[in-house]
Design a protein that fits this description.
Length: 463
């Protein structure tokens, strides 16, 4: 009986829930942890802010769950924390006699609810999918329609409440931004970590989770720069954040804006969205990067291009997993090809995607000639769509990677008309000075991180 951390990540409704669950991974929070391996069930009592603990139970195999907390996220942070602890340290769960409240939950999962059970469900909201489905079968068509209408009304009220809360937080951010400009950027740089942490905490409270995370990461971007470059970098980043906050007040339903400020869609939401674009083709991996975030999660990014289409926009497969699983190394997948379908997140410029059905591709194909756009034109295209972007994927045409002898690497086009300074601290000596057919970078507009190059003699090489 076991469950992987990857499965727990997939069950989580959003990254904020995972972060909240991580905060509950403390033995003192869970005075009771039990399991019944013969029925694949674990349970626990989590001490919350009130006098009574939250009773949490989960099925490790089919991932059913229930918690007595009032959260509207399914599963809630307590369920995620319970499963997370079992994945990390299953031995801390004592084999014990199943408590009555767990027995009651198991009973409701396996048969239609009785009147007593229905009444109990009203007093203690169940978060188990199976129990909810069984309860629905006892309702008439009229009752189901009424229930659905009530759910939509509650969802609309919750959405309006969230938007009002986010708006208040962004107004506070704009006031904070005005204060920084009045007091001077130099003073902000001296105290940037503490100042950013305080406003980020307020924005988390205001449910602007992704916006807060971006501010919280600002010191890590600024402090490594030399002192002469720090003011310009601060102005650029604060300017983008100001544009993003204003975009919210113009249209908070804009999918790009909402994703950048509040939270992204879940995998299930993207797959069930009829407007999600699906593209089939032969996809080649051209870039891969793994980064540890300040919230304790690890982001694994992989970029692919459709080599059978003449107009290529790199697709991004982005996964998150808890840092407790250990930092993975970048896999040797650069240049590998698959044949299958990608399902893209709705956006003005399609980029992030989910991998649908696919299979490894090793056959022959007619590779389309890539329509490589000037780097600055690519930058302008992305900037016009989302002016607050931090970076964008770019395919560079024929050129070379050169070392200026001062520790800085440059990509230079073959005709000498384009150059791009690279942020790489080192570059594979094999490609230095070699004629390249194309290069793939993740660029901020002024500087790019080289992830791979394509050569005539050696094929695709990871950087």
């Amino acid at each position: 009986m076991e469950i992987s951390l990857e499965t727990i990540q997939e069950l989580a409704p959003d990254q904020a829930s995972l972060k909240a669950a991580k905060g509950l991974l403390k033995p003192a929070k869970w005075p009771v942890l039990g399991q019944a391996s013969e029925i694949n069930t674990i349970w626990g009592e989590c001490q919350g802010s009130g006098s009574k603990p939250y009773y949490t139970v989960a099925d490790v195999v089919d991932h059913g769950y229930k918690c007595t907390c009032p959260s509207r996220k399914f599963p809630c942070k307590h369920v995620l924390a319970l499963l997370w602890q079992f994945s990390d340290a299953g031995s801390s769960f004592t084999e014990a006699e199943v408590p009555q409240w767990v027995t009651d939950w198991l009973g409701r999962r396996r048969r239609a609810p009785t009147n007593n059970q229905t009444q109990e469900t009203k007093t203690t909201p169940s978060k188990d999918i199976n129990a909810t489905a069984e309860a629905s079968e006892t309702l008439s068509a009229e009752e189901l329609a009424k229930k659905e209408a009530q759910q939509k009304q509650r969802a609309a009220q919750s959405k309006a409440k969230t938007e009002a809360c986010v708006s208040d937080g962004l107004i506070e951010f704009q006031q904070w931004l005005d204060d920084q400009l009045v007091n001077g950027i130099s003073q902000l740089i001296k105290e940037i970590t503490e100042r950013c942490r305080r406003i980020a905490a307020r924005l988390v409270d205001a449910k602007a989770t992704n916006f807060a995370a971006r501010i919280d990461e600002l010191p890590a971007k600024i402090m490594p720069l030399c002192s002469t470059l720090q003011p310009q970098a601060v102005y650029q980043e604060l300017g983008k954040l100001a544009l993003l906050s204003e975009a919210w007040f113009v249209d908070c339903d804009n999918i790009d804006v909402r994703r950048a400020i509040v939270t992204g869609e879940t995998r299930e939401q993207v797959l069930s969205n009829p407007h999600s674009v699906r593209v089939k083709g032969i996809w080649e991996t051209v870039g891969e990067r793994i980064e540890t975030r300040k919230d304790g999660l690890i982001a694994h990014s992989k970029w692919l291009i459709n080599i059978t289409e003449p107009h290529v926009e790199p697709a991004l497969l982005l996964d998150f997993y808890p840092a407790a699983t250990g930092r993975k190394t970048v896999s040797n997948s650069i240049g590998r090809k698959i044949e299958g379908e990608l399902i893209f997140y709705p956006a003005k410029i399609l980029q992030r995607a989910l991998l649908g059905e696919y299979k490894a591709f090793e056959g022959k194909y007619d590779e389309a000639e890539l329509a490589v756009m000037d780097h600055q034109l690519q930058f302008q295209r992305h900037l016009s769509a989302t002016p607050w972007i931090e970076e964008f994927p770019a395919i560079l045409g024929a050129g070379r990677v050169l070392d200026d002898g001062k520790g800085t690497f440059w990509w230079c086009s073959s005709d000498g008309t384009q150059t791009l300074v690279l942020s790489n601290n080192e570059v594979n000596p094999v490609i230095l000075g070699s004629e390249l057919e194309r290069a793939f970078v993740v660029s901020s507009g002024s500087k790019g991180t080289l992830l791979s190059v394509t050569t005539k003699n050696w094929g695709v090489i990871a950087c």
